[in-house]
Design a protein that fits this description.
It is a single chain. By secondary structure, this protein is mainly α. It has one domain. It contains nine helices and no strands. The termini are far apart.
C-alpha cells in the first residue's frame, strides 16, 4: 500500500528540516547563538518559522483544515495541569530562557509554539490517521522530536561525547509527555503551555 500524500509530506518536511538544520546549525555554526537563546540569532527565527509554515500550509495542500483541526480550546483542569507540570519541568531545566527578561519570555513563547505546533499538532494529527492505537503516533512524533535535538549546536558539540544519547532519550521522553497531553486533552494549547513554562529557568529567580 502506497503512503498517502499527507503522510509523505509530513515525513518529507521532517527530513527537509533535518537537512536544513544540519547545514545551518551545525556545519555553518549558526546554532551557537540559537543555543544561547540570543535574540539576534536569525537562524533561531528561520528554523521555527519553517516549522510553523509546514504545520499550517501542508495540511491545506491535502484538502485538510490545517490549524483549525488541531484543537484550540482548553479546560480549566488542563490549564492547571499544563502550568503545574511545566513549572515542575522548569525547575529541573539547567538551560532555558531567563524568566526575568521580557524578550526572553517572548522568545520562549515563540519557540515552544512553533515546536508544539509542528511536532505535536501537525505530526501526531497526521500519524493518527494511519496508526492504530493511542500511543503509536505519540511515540513516533516523540522519537522524531528527540532526534531533532541532535541538530542543536550545544548538544552535538558537547564535550562529553555520550551526551547526545542522553539528550535524545531525555527529549524523546518529553516528547511523549507533551504528545500524551495533546492527545488526551485534544487541545494544542495544553502542550504549548506546558512546554512554555518548562523552558523558563526558574533558578534565576532565587
Amino acid at each position: 500500500m502506497t503512503m498517502k500524500r499527507d503522510l509523505v509530506l509530513a515525513i518529507g518536511s521532517y527530513c527537509l528540516l533535518m537537512i536544513i538544520a544540519v547545514k545551518f546549525s551545525l556545519m555553518d555554526g549558526l546554532g551557537a547563538d540559537e543555543s544561547a537563546h540570543l535574540p539576534t540569532s536569525v537562524w533561531m527565527y528561520v528554523r521555527r518559522i519553517i516549522m510553523i509554515i509546514f504545520a499550517c500550509v501542508l495540511p491545506l495542500l491535502c484538502g485538510q483544515k490545517g490549524i483549525a483541526a488541531y484543537g484550540w480550546r482548553i479546560t480549566r483542569r488542563w490549564l492547571l495541569i499544563a502550568v503545574g507540570v511545566g513549572i515542575f519541568i522548569g525547575f529541573g531545566n539547567p538551560g532555558g530562557f531567563d524568566p526575568l527578561s521580557f524578550i526572553a519570555i517572548v522568545l520562549a513563547a515563540f519557540h515552544t509554539f512553533a515546536t508544539e505546533l509542528y511536532f505535536r499538532s501537525y505530526l501526531i494529527t497526521t500519524f493518527a490517521r494511519y496508526c492504530k492505537g493511542f500511543w503509536t503516533p505519540i511515540v513516533l512524533s516523540a522519537l522524531m522530536y528527540g532526534y531533532s535535538y541532535l541538530t542543536v549546536y550545544n548538544i552535538w558539540f558537547h564535550e562529553w561525547p555520550y551526551f547526545k544519547f542522553v539528550a535524545f532519550g531525555l527529549f524523546t521522553l518529553l516528547g511523549i509527555l507533551f504528545g500524551y497531553s495533546y492527545r488526551k486533552s485534544q487541545s494544542a494549547e495544553v502542550p504549548w503551555i506546558m512546554h512554555f513554562f518548562g523552558v523558563l529557568k526558574y533558578r534565576m529567580l532565587f
